[in-house]
Amino acid sequence: MFYGIAGNLDQLREWSSSLSDSTPALLTNVDNVSVLAFFTKWLGDAGRAVQPTLIALGALAVLTLAVIVAGWRRPNSFVLEGALILTLIPLISPLGWDYTFLMALVAVALIVNNRFVFATPIQWLLAANFAIVALALYDTMGRTIYGAFMRWSVTTINFVVVILALAYLRVRQAA
User: Fold this and answer.
1) What's the start-to-end Cα distance of the chain, in Å?
2) Residue 91 to residues 51, 71, 95, 114: CA-CA distances in angstroms?
3) pLDDT tens-digit profile of 105-137?
């Protein structure tokens, strides 16, 4: 109400312009964990990263739809689905920062609580994945190793593993 309709539209245009101008530089920021940033870091160019990003996001969308369909008639299916969607947010957003994976806490809890659904080697893989997530701190790794770790987008890969584990849980629980 303060800006009025025209003022609100101006604010939205300015916000869009500001976001568009700042995003390319932020894609190579070491703390950006989005899928677009992942491919930009690995391919060295945001333009070349668009196609693999769209393919990866399309695959994640299909996987999410499959998880929802598999839990269609399950009571309380919304818990796993909500955890999955919260985990996807930092990956989908072009400005997904590493700290936003705090939203994946429910996903991690679901996986840990249902760890015996997974085969023993997968349990060990998930334990290693969570250990990497827990110990991937500037304070524990130091500047050089932490910088390389984040430039390689290992955190992005860690949480793709979490998403795959949630999908597996849904399939196993739907049977």
Assistant:
1) 52
2) 15, 23, 9, 24
3) 999 999 999 999 999 999 999 999 999 999 988
Indicate the burial class of 62 (C-beta count within 10 angstroms; 0-12, 13-18, 19 or more): exposed
Q: Take residue 175 and report the two structure tokens written for it.
A: 């049977």
| The two three-digit tokens of residue 90, written as one number | 């930092």
Give pTM, 2 decimals.
Answer: 0.84
Angstrom distance (rounded) from CA 98 to CA 58: 22
Residue 151 token pair = 């430039």
- Distance, CA of 39 to CA of 46 (rounded, Å): 8
**pLDDT of 44-76, one tens digit each?**
888 899 999 999 999 999 999 999 999 988 888
Query: Which one-letter DSSP state was computed for residue 2?
Result: -
